[in-house]
Amino acid sequence: MSEQENPVFAIEKIYIKDLSVEVPHAPQIFLDREAPKVSIQLQTSTQGIGEGVYEVTLTTTVTSKIEEKTVFLVEVGQAGIFRVQNVPDENMEPLLSIACPNILFPYAREVVSDAVIRAGFAPVLLQPVNFEALYMSRLEQRQEAAKDATGEATIQ
């Protein structure tokens, strides 16, 4: 009987890879009393940086506008280095696309809130995100695109 190695999933490092804060219409924007509209965009990227070692970056962009005028723009690239070994190939993408962003999100939420406060505005509190639903939606979109490109459905 051969002994199979146990799966390994470990956080090696969590860090801010990129942070940008812009208040293009300061100081006049602080005198505007109209309530701004806030939009939030999330994006994840993954790259292998060694055998069984991956960097996952969760980029969070928060834009606040009054009509067409930008009040503030905050972009945070919250990254982590994760060691993943002895995990079946079919589990790698979900692990890196769901589990890792779930770990990074609370850090990104704190950085966004802190940056917005330091820029002179009320904090933006990001609501929890269902990264599994986002992953499944992206997977569905890829399958639809593949089906449209080949003219037939692909089964996985």
Automatic annotation (TrEMBL):
Q: Which InterPro entries match?
A: SecB, SecB-like_sf
Q: What is its main location?
A: cytoplasm
A GO CC term attached to the entry: cytoplasm
* One of the GO biological process terms: protein folding
Q: Which residues form the signal peptide?
A: none
Keywords recorded for this protein, A-Z: Chaperone, Cytoplasm, Protein transport, Translocation, Transport
Subcellular locations according to the entry: Cytoplasm
GO MF, any single term:
unfolded protein binding
Regions that span the bilayer: none
Q: Which HAMAP family match?
A: SecB
Family per record: Belongs to the SecB family.
Tell me, in a sentence or two, what this protein's role is. One of the proteins required for the normal export of preproteins out of the cell cytoplasm. It is a molecular chaperone that binds to a subset of precursor proteins, maintaining them in a translocation-competent state. It also specifically binds to its receptor SecA.
Summarize subunit and interaction data from the UniProt record for this chain: Homotetramer, a dimer of dimers. One homotetramer interacts with 1 SecA dimer.
Q: What is this protein called?
A: Protein-export protein SecB
This protein's species is: Candidatus Accumulibacter affinis
